Amino acid sequence: VQLVESGGGLVQAGGSLRLSCAASGRSFISYTMGWFRQAPGKEREFVASISRNGGSTYSSDSVRSRFTISRDNAKSTVYLQIDTLKPEDTAVYYCAARYLADNRYNSWGQGTLVTVSS
């Protein structure tokens, strides 16, 4: 599956963004989808994931109250709604796909940059 993220940009602290990740290729519903981010000088970290039918989501403790993951299987797209942005949310955000029972994410997008100004 090929993944293309969009929706990043420069935003002031306190603002909101919705990132999108469009998938093409193999059947989208076969994939658990996830969002990760990598801040400057830091390792990539997990942000959130969503099950294949969208019925189950999981997010890291640090973002749970502000980030919401969702998906539209008819559009083969996964979203990440980010509210109350903070400067420390500045990072490149990547979506990733995990196929059926695979135990690792093996398809990645190119990333979209989110910059939050204080």
In words, what does this structure look like?
This protein starts with a strand and ends with a strand. By secondary structure, it is mainly β. It is globular, with a radius of gyration of 13 Å. It contains no helices and eleven strands.
Write the layout of secondary structure elements.
Elements: E1 2-6, E2 9-12, E3 17-24, E4 31-38, E5 45-50, E6 57-59, E7 67-72, E8 77-82, E9 91-99, E10 107-108, E11 112-117
Parallel strand pairs: 2-11
Antiparallel strand pairs: 1-3, 3-8, 4-5, 4-9, 5-6, 7-8, 9-10, 9-11
In short:
This protein has 118 residues and is an all-beta fold. Helix content is 0%, strand content 53%.
Give descriptors for this structure.
118 residues; mainly beta; seven-stranded mixed β-sheet; four-stranded antiparallel β-sheet; 11 strands; 0% helix; globular
Helix segment tally: 0
- Per the principal axes of the C-alpha atoms, what is the gross shape? globular
Indicate the multimeric state.
single chain
* Integer average pLDDT: 96
Distance between the termini: 37 Å
DSSP, total strands: 11
| Major β-sheet annotation | 7 strands, mixed
What percentage of amino acids are in beta strands?
A: over 45%
Given helix and strand content, the structural type is mainly beta
The parts where pLDDT drops under 50 for at least 5 residues are none
Q: Radius of gyration in whole Å, from Cα?
A: 13 Å
**H-E order:** EEEEEEEEEEE
Q: What is the helical fraction, as a range of percent? A: under 10%
